Amino acid sequence: MPQRPDINRRILLAARPLGEPTVQDFCLDEAAVPVPAEGQVLLRTLYLSLDPYMRNLMDEAGTRYAPAVPLKQPMVGATVSRVVASRHPGFGVGEVVLASAGWQDYALSDGAGLTPLGGMTQPSLALGGLGMTAFTAYVGLLDIGQPRLGETVVVAAATGAVGSVVGQIARLQGARVVGIAGGAQKCRHAVGQLGFDTCLDHRAPALDERLAAACPDGIDVYFENVGGAVFDAVLPLLNDGARVPVCGVIAHYNDATPPPGPDRLPRMMSTLLQRRIRMQGFIILDHYADRFEAFHRDMARWLAEGRIVLREDRIDGLEHAPAAFVGLLQGRNFGKLVVRVADD
Amino acid sequence: MPQRPDINRRILLAARPLGEPTVQDFCLDEAAVPVPAEGQVLLRTLYLSLDPYMRNLMDEAGTRYAPAVPLKQPMVGATVSRVVASRHPGFGVGEVVLASAGWQDYALSDGAGLTPLGGMTQPSLALGGLGMTAFTAYVGLLDIGQPRLGETVVVAAATGAVGSVVGQIARLQGARVVGIAGGAQKCRHAVGQLGFDTCLDHRAPALDERLAAACPDGIDVYFENVGGAVFDAVLPLLNDGARVPVCGVIAHYNDATPPPGPDRLPRMMSTLLQRRIRMQGFIILDHYADRFEAFHRDMARWLAEGRIVLREDRIDGLEHAPAAFVGLLQGRNFGKLVVRVADD
């Protein structure tokens, strides 16, 4: 569907998925472009961020930190947007801001939560490498994982938006970094471009044995962002005093009911106990006030110095967001997934 | 079997239990009383401590912090013992010490690991209220659980050696304390004698609903020492930022293989994540150097001031240790379980 300046294309939640979402759970809707009232701005979406947490907002229960998306309403999400009309004294036409405009071409805002992006040369970075996903990596790894020189850090989804940054920051701390990714190409990227010490393909057989061989000194930090079989391979290798920041469990986001047995919880608890492991969940929204400034300063420096490399997986066209999102949950993205909705 | 001064009765591990241990997994053996060599003392066991961790040492795998008890060898365990012969310059005959003499009347020691108990009026307290079990409660609750004024603390095995102290220390911190125990008598004791705000009988139906009703503001600290169904009732009530010190999972010590499904791990991980929960295993052996002195000072004061009440479940006769231990794993003890092996 071509884009027209007088139409606001919106991707609505059409149905609550049972298990894995499909493109049929979304629908493309057209509405009039809204008109800002006094105190409002009209935002044009330039880039839309697609992130695994959105899967949870498709379920009726929503999450502890954000409510469910109502049926027949636009999917929510962070955007880089341009102010195209303004009746707000704080924002001028043409200004580019970080917003939460959702999966649509246009949105109104009263200015709350908008962050001006100034003259950023690559504004989509505000959604990834200088934004939420890299900030998630920074806080989870440094504040909870606390890797020390020479320790072994394992991170799954190693070329994803979060995992790729976790591994690179861990290397900067002097840790040994073992990645896990889906497919040989991603593994090569993790080692060759991101500087991981090694990276294992979770689609190849015998992940357990290969991970054990790759971690001869055990695992000191496991950055949990997937769950499932990777967690099972990691658990027996965790060292005494290991730290497990829990950032996501993408392998389970589609579970409609608890999966069949055996019950893996008792073994996990026994391991946690005997090895004095600290496991801690975190939601990045909690940490902006305290830690975003430090993150942004460090990350901007690392990027400028070429010490951290980012890879963006950019999709063109809002109408392709549903398929791209379905692919994200299947691990088909390669880097931070963003949808280019309009020219920046 | 009556006791004779020239015989060392020893309780040996006869078989490695499959699942729940029975008294047939132990056997009573008689040996000559050993004779100390130069540099050794001969210890007479006065009190033997029985603790759930011993179950793990009956399995061939042992634990991360202590090896398995070999078959046909005496069960290990902490004791209060009297020096009855000494060829060690540091210990005189008649001195009472904290030792690890195991399930037997007599043992030799080279003095390593012996702690003189001076003129303690109730030396068996060195095994419980002034010893390992209360120290476990102190470290787990204060250092990991970190209850704050007005928060809700839930502790299972509420009248046991650890749980009873957890709850009382939590009350001293100004927390609201909800206990869970097996049977109405224990629940009455927890409220009436130990000062818990309330205590629920886990043998009565609908624990989930009763726990939810007893925790209208949710749960901020869950001191995990049982696992199983209690954990399932606690999980949905944990608040954002809750802390879960993991001290033991007695409900699972008898598991020979992972229990059947459904698999409870994914739900646990999702809850941990969404509610930013910190879960941390600990082994009390790690903390003596740093924290025992503070514990001992605080606990001695609380006991002297009557602010903490201890209950000892005292069994008479070494020969009854196996049955008492089997009962401990079934929750039949009422207070810290000690075996009086000889007059103090």
Report on this structure.
2 copies of one chain form a homodimer. The first copy, chain A, has 344 residues and is α/β, with parallel strands linked by helices. Chain A has 2 domains: 7-125 and 312-340, Alpha-Beta Complex (Quinone Oxidoreductase, Chain A, domain 1); 132-284, 3-Layer(aba) Sandwich (Rossmann fold), CATH 3.40.50. The first copy, chain A, contains 9 helices and 15 strands. Chain A has helices at 53-57, 132-145, 163-172, 184-192, 207-214, 228-234, 265-274, 288-304, 321-329, and strands spanning 7-13, 26-32, 41-49, 79-86, 96-99, 106-109, 115-116, 152-155, 176-181, 198-201, 219-223, 238-246, 278-281, 312-316, 336-340. In chain A, strands 3, 4, 5, 6, 7, 14 and 15 form a 7-stranded mixed sheet that branches. In chain A, strand 8, helix 3 (163-172) and strand 9 (176-181) form a beta-alpha-beta unit. In chain A, helix 2 (132-145) packs across helix 8. The mean pLDDT of chain A is 94. The A-B interface holds A 63-65, 224, 227, 231, 240, 246-249, 251-252, 255, 257-283, 286 and B 63-65, 224, 227, 231, 240, 246-249, 251-252, 255, 257-283, 286. Strand 13 (278-281) of chain A pairs antiparallel with strand 13 (278-281) of chain B, so a sheet runs across the interface.
